[in-house]
Prior knowledge:
The protein is mainly β. It has strands at about 1-5, 10-15, 20-25, 35-40, 45-50, 60, 70-75, 80-85, 90-100, 105-110, 110-115. A hairpin with a 4-residue loop joins strand 7 and strand 8 (about 80-85). It is globular.
Amino acid sequence: QVQLVESGGGLVQAGGSLRLSCAASGSIFSFNVMAWYRRAPGKQRELVASITSGVGITNYADSVKARFTISRDNTKNTVFLQMNSLKPEDTAVYYCNLRQGVPVNAYWGQGTQVTVSS
């Protein structure tokens, strides 16, 4: 099993920044993909950004490109999401995710609230 512990959410003014962190522990394979998802009020959960282990190949949702940066520290099994130029539309519960194995298993953090006020 894998456990994910998130931190860094909070309330910020539009245009501000936050950095989310997610530390993974447990039976973590050498190759895995960590990601941030979010669920805004009245909307389905969507992928925000993902990053592979090793080289660190990243993908971003179009809505956050050029504003958010995902990174990871493989020695600590921790993933980060640097969120800049935040907009009210970014308000959501943000969830950390890890996928690994064949067949793939997915693990989720508890979620952290990000609220952007105008």
